[in-house]
Amino acid sequence: MGLLRDEASDPRRALPIGVFDSGLGGLTVVRQIRRMCPQEDILYLGDTARVPYGTRSAQTVLRYSRACARALVSRGIKLLVVACNTVSAVALDMLRVELDLPVLGVIEPGAGAAVAATRRHRVGVLATAGTIASGAYPRAIASRSSRTEVFGRSAPLLVPLVEEGWLDGEVPRLAVARYLETLAACDVDVVVLGCTHYPVLRDLIAVESRRVLGDDASVVDSAEATAEELRDFLATRSLGAASVREGRLRMLVTDRPQSFADVASRFLGHPVTEVEQIDL
Ligand code: DGL
């Protein structure tokens, strides 16, 4: 008697959720988590010294991911959300084996949302070269629907455009249209935003998708699907924060905290003042 742990008083509930990305794109996931789990504290790490990950080898991404995950775990988190699609594509299994806490990635939720959205059973994925090369989206979608075909297109130019804050006008529009044109030949009716940065261009991608792919084309945001999965996961495991106050967001980066703070303010829609620099 007395040996069973009372779930309601699990001390892990008070710990923050750890979230990491190669840079600032993961804030699109943070924004969705704050919308769906507003009372959760979040500890965010952006590896701005080593971004981008999307053009690197899987081995290098594994090494960087391990360092990021350990930095967050050593500071005390209850669960890890891998916001980066490239890391989720190549390093999720390794992190799940090595870490003694739940690890959620963005690909499985994005794949689930894509299968639910497609009517023609033909899905297009825009992502980094690393994510496309890994085949992670086709695998995740095949495990949910064997009849759905998946067509990938790497869209590397969209990452620097978002980092620059160049979000409207002809340049991003033409880049998005060019990437979508390859998918038009595949007759897809769903476009998955398979990279942390792309949700920032969501409205533009949605408009161009309808123009290039047809009026019934829809856009699936992995960030949103991940936050929904996180909310359900916290509820079923009784791991959600017990407090009712608004959750705090603490941000760590590995380089250039000031420029991160400037762009983060735009991503999150409110001023960001405190960003700490750490070494991995
Ligand atoms: N975070 C990366 C992703 O979601 C995009 C930026 C990068 O290449 O590091 O795939």
Descriptive account of the structure:
The protein has about 280 residues and is α/β, with parallel strands linked by helices. It has 2 domains: about 1-105 and about 225-275, Rossmann fold, CATH 3.40.50; about 105-220, Rossmann fold (3-Layer(aba) Sandwich), CATH 3.40.50. The chain is about 45% helix and about 15% strand. It contains 12 helices and 10 strands. The protein has a 6-stranded parallel β-sheet, with helices on both faces. It has a 4-stranded parallel β-sheet with strand order 6-5-7-8, with helices on both faces. Bound molecules: D-glutamic acid. D-glutamic acid (DGL) binds next to helix 3.
CATH class of the largest domain: Alpha Beta
**What is the chain-wise order of helices and strands?**
EHEHEHHEHEHHEHHEHEHEHE
Distance between the termini: 44 Å
- Total strand count, please? 10
Known CATH architecture of the largest domain: 3-Layer(aba) Sandwich
Number of contiguous helices: 12
- Choose one word for the global shape: globular
Poorly predicted ranges = 1-7
Mean pLDDT: 93
Major sheet: arrangement of strands: 4-3-1-2-9-10
Bound molecules: D-glutamic acid
Helical percent range?
40-55%
- SS class: alpha/beta
| Strand residue percentage | 15-25%
Rg from alpha-carbon coordinates: 18 Å
Describe the sheet with the most strands: 6 strands, parallel
Q: What's the number of structural domains?
A: 2
CATH topology of the largest domain: Rossmann fold
At a glance:
With 280 residues, the chain is α/β, with parallel strands linked by helices. It has 12 helices and 10 strands.
Name the features.
280 residues; alpha/beta; Rossmann fold; 2 domains; 6-stranded parallel β-sheet; 4-stranded parallel β-sheet; 12 helices; 10 strands; 16% strand; globular; binds D-glutamic acid
